[in-house]
Amino acid sequence: MIKAKCTAVVLFAGLCLCACGGEPRVSSLKQGMDAVRALEYEEALVHFGSGLDAGEDERQIYRGMGLAYMGMTRYEEAVSYLEAALHAGRGRVDELDFDINYYLATAYYRNGQTQEAADAYSAILAMRPREKDAFYLRGCVKLSQDDFEGAQADFNAAVALDSKNYDQMIRIYMALEEYGYKDAGLAYLQNALAENEKSISDYDMGRICYYMGDYENARSHLANLKTDYGAALYLGRTYEALGDYNYASSIYAAYTENDQSKAEIYNQLGLCRMKMGEYEPALTAFQAAMNIEDNGMMQTLKFNEIVAYEYMRDYKTAAALMNSYLKSYPDDAAAKREYEFLQTR
Fold first, then answer.
1. Residue 236 pLDDT greater than 80, yes or no
2. How far is CA 60 from CA 82, 84, 95, 107, 123, in A?
């Protein structure tokens, strides 16, 4: 699945002064962006409309409206507003143009306009030829177009720009595996190990071994680092891959005793509990993760919460939550099928 590059939200509006009494008021633009972050997309659009009426920054508002429509999975409208945001520029390329282009490429892709998505990344690269994220994302688009050679050329360009970026190497592997080119993906990981054998850390060695399916070596490299977030996550996943869900869950649970801020650890703990048939503790783990502000994985957590209620045979609660879930994520086909099942229970 292609994802948009995460960039800082640039807000030009700030605080305005009310006409009455001189007290500061929050701009409609800021209220709209706050609503987008809270996944309240309809509310966001109301604020953005007010901002347009008040003469606030048109370009930023169109961008915000594009993001709101993306959140609502209405990608045709998202494309229209993001294109309008680009056209509202002053002719000189700035940081906001790159930000908008990344989102626009994602909207194109989600709208089935894969060539337009590739062209958007090409436009970024024409202005910033060393933008490795654009190479990687264009490679993902090319995979979706059955252009393996073109994708590989883009992935190679991304690696050449940052040969020690193991996060990127793993993303390339996962993209290739998703489209049926697992062996090609493994080659990137093997080359990373061969070329950086003397300098690679135990953490990076461990997680690359995990993706290569070399669980014994993954465990060996990660075992002494399990108090570190990343290492605990990958060590637990390694034991999951080995079928030892009990020990994996003990690693996740031990980590949460000292750090309650990592949603993914709680999610993996919940998944392990589910595998072990411990549905109430699984639900507790998912809900703990959902209570973490800006956890970045709310859709996954909400879905897992619903599944936990379903396994607990609380179909009424599961159905109510699924109804709410589909209002926020209406393009989740698997969730729609699950909702149809829940309605029969």
1. yes
2. 10, 10, 12, 17, 20
